[in-house]
Design goal:
Strand order of the largest sheet: 2-14-15-16-20-21-22-1-3
Number of strands: 22
Oligomer: single chain
Shape: globular
Strand content: 15-25%
Helix content: 10-25%
Radius of gyration: 23 Å
Number of helices: 12
């Protein structure tokens, strides 16, 4: 399927009048007499579909944001590719607190060569002590134009920096602001509290960061017993200021175990951030975001519905449901909690309306992306299991 696009401001789920592609068997067996690369004729490919994608900004100035992360050199190095998507060439700064390492200087240089304004600092403190220490480190590194300090995990992924900048612009940085995302799981809130969960990204205004800095020694000592760094920051704010959390629902912690496809395929407003994609459920966000080089950041995870019931969630999947989708608003509840079943009422504050898992869903997941000049080729693969043949769906994006 070839997709050509034009830019326009649209809702995040759009219906197309075209049918889905027709699948044809191809002989991919390689031997001495057959070439490694098989060129398909135009007749073997579906006719191009022209779609409109949301408007996106060509350049974003994020110089008023300074980010901080507590991690290790190894984990930071494995995160460079995804950070490049949202941190490069936009003048945002990043300070990473890591355990002492002989290779941190080389990593810092490599990241800077990619357009990421990063400073790597060593600390012998524990992970959570380093995490809380970011409040003082970011305060000391502020500049006259700095408005926000963002504290993230090394697997926090922002889909669109321009969207993040625009959302923060709706808040007054001259006031004491504590902005973040809650966990989607209400039971987790009962355990960890009503706080900004760090994996979703938390943002502190400079007036609030100043207040935290003024009581930093006391907070560092008093809340050291808490097992999570984001919890220590929350307690310091709640016990020493009158500032309360401003919940930004599009900052997502993604505390969803097992299969999170229902979240990603819901066709709702684009998330500002996602989390846990590296270890809880493997999603290659670099491959997912590759199509943004053609259609812009705003088209990531945008969903199109074809006339015959297929749905393309850009950068994630191509699916057809076993049950008719009467209510496109409801999110499919596909996940669990460490093999424990969950119920919809545990997500009423965050993700509802929900609908039961569709056992008959046919799902092609994005597995590979090839970038060729102005063309981005996405390969979605359906693996039905033992005894059945795999299927591949190629979506080629071409900007016109």
């Amino acid at each position: 399927m070839v997709v050509e696009y034009t830019k326009e401001k649209l809702n995040f789920t759009e219906s197309l009048g075209q049918q889905g592609p027709a699948f044809r068997p191809l002989d991919l067996v390689e031997d001495d007499e057959s070439p490694e690369e098989q060129i398909l004729t135009q007749a073997q490919c579906s006719a191009p579909i022209k779609v409109q994608v949301p408007l996106s900004k060509p350049c974003t100035d994020a110089s008023h944001i300074i980010f901080g992360v507590s991690t290790t050199v190894e984990r930071l190095e494995s995160s460079v590719s995804q950070m490049q998507h949202w941190l490069s060439h936009n003048r945002a700064r990043l300070i990473a607190l890591v355990e002492p390492s002989a290779t941190s200087g080389k990593l810092e240089s490599n990241m800077r060569n990619l357009g990421i304004d990063v400073t790597i600092r060593h600390s012998n403190a524990t992970f959570n002590d380093r995490y809380f220490a970011l409040t003082r480190v970011l305060y000391n590194a502020r500049r006259p134009n700095t408005q926000w300090a963002g504290i993230v995990d090394d697997d926090t992924f922002f889909l669109s920096m321009s969207a993040l900048v625009d959302r923060l612009a709706k808040h007054d940085p001259t006031e004491e602001k504590y902005i973040g995302g809650l966990t989607e799981d209400f039971r987790q809130i009962g355990y960890f509290g009503y706080i900004a969960y760090g994996g979703a990204g938390m943002f502190l205004s400079m007036p609030l960061l100043t207040k935290i800095n003024n009581v930093y020694p006391e907070c560092r000592k008093r809340y050291r017993y808490l097992e999570n760094g984001d919890g220590r920051i929350a307690q310091c704010i709640y016990r020493h200021t009158t500032t309360k959390l401003t919940w930004e629902p599009d900052l997502h912690q993604i505390d969803l175990h097992g299969d999170p496809s229902g979240f990603y395929e819901a066709g709702r407003r684009q998330p500002l951030s996602i989390h846990h994609w590296k270890h809880w459920y493997p999603i290659d966000v670099v491959k997912m975001s590759a199509v943004s080089s053609v259609c812009g950041e705003a088209c990531l995870l945008k969903r199109w519905k074809l006339a015959d019931g297929w749905y393309l969630t850009n950068g994630y999947s191509f699916v057809k449901y076993g049950e008719p989708q009467v209510d496109d608003v409801a999110m499919e509840l596909t996940w669990d909690r460490l093999d424990e079943e969950v119920t919809a009422d545990e997500y009423e504050h965050s993700l509802t309306p929900l609908r039961p898992k569709d056992q008959g869903k046919i799902s092609y997941r994005l597995e590979e992306v090839v970038q060729d000049g102005g063309l981005v080729r996405q390969f979605y693969v359906y693996r039905p299991g033992e005894g059945a043949e795999d299927r591949v769906m190629e979506v080629s994006w071409s900007g016109r």
